[in-house]
Design goal:
The chain has 177 residues and is of the alpha/beta class. It has a single domain, classed as 3-Layer(aba) Sandwich (Rossmann fold). The chain contains 7 helices and 8 strands, in the order αββααβαβββαβαβα. 37% of the residues are buried. The model has no long low-confidence stretch (mean pLDDT 97). Bound molecules: 1-O-pyrophosphono-5-O-phosphono-alpha-D-ribofuranose and orotic acid (ORO). 1-O-pyrophosphono-5-O-phosphono-alpha-D-ribofuranose binds next to strand 6 and helix 5.
């Protein structure tokens, strides 16, 4: 599957219209239900294929953000051989009390993996959390950049943002079909 075909598949599988409250609190007439493509093994593997080249070569650990970033980071880990951690929105309050589940991230170069970026708010929170545990966080890789404030907010926080598809790319792939 080439990149344009994947764009079409992702759009057709996961793009919904209606009235949706977003994580940021804003309301939107569109929503990508990422679980609809992540739960399809063929599409998840294609996403990992196309995302893998965006991961910086010196990455030591992939950090999949709860919850939608976790399947993608896992697929990327299987593809690249780079270990993965599963990052909770809030550290577990019993047992190991971990925020990032998996191997120790202290001193490691970590690349954040996310599904959809709107304002980048969740990534900013998780990046700060990971840094508190000693991770070196610079790069973020996501599947869908909704082209709202996300890129500016992430770059203002000195993060390097790599997206597979912008909203414009998804729309144009579908309109060309
Ligand atoms: O760029 P932002 O404005 O922060 O919004 C995008 C975030 O919101 C969604 O997660 P959601 O809170 O729906 O959680 P989930 O992945 O656990 O379903 C998405 O997966 C991003 O994490
Ligand atoms: O901004 C969000 O919360 C958001 C947008 C979107 O398209 N998909 C999603 O899972 N979350």
């Amino acid at each position: 599957m080439n990149k344009k075909e994947l764009a079409r598949e992702i759009f057709n599988t996961s793009h919904l219209t209606g009235v949706f409250k977003l994580r940021s609190g804003k309301e939107s007439d569109k929503y990508f239900d990422k679980y609809l493509f992540e739960s399809n093994p063929k599409l998840l593997a294609e996403v990992a294929d196309k995302l893998a080249p965006l991961i910086p070569l010196d990455t030591e650990i992939l950090a999949g953000l709860e919850m939608g970033g976790i399947p993608i980071a896992t697929a990327l880990s299987l593809k690249t051989g780079i270990p993965v951690v599963f990052v909770r929105k809030k550290a577990k309050e019993y047992g190991t009390c971990k925020l990032a589940e998996g191997k120790d991230i202290d001193g490691k170069k970590v690349c954040i993996i996310e599904d959809v970026v709107t304002t980048g708010g969740q990534i900013l929170l998780s990046a700060e959390d990971l840094k508190k545990y000693g991770a070196k966080v610079k790069d973020v890789v996501c599947v869908i950049e909704r082209e709202e404030a996300g890129r500016n907010n992430l770059e203002s926080a000195d993060l390097v943002f790599h997206s597979l598809f912008t909203m414009e790319e998804l729309l144009s792939a579908v309109s060309e079909a």
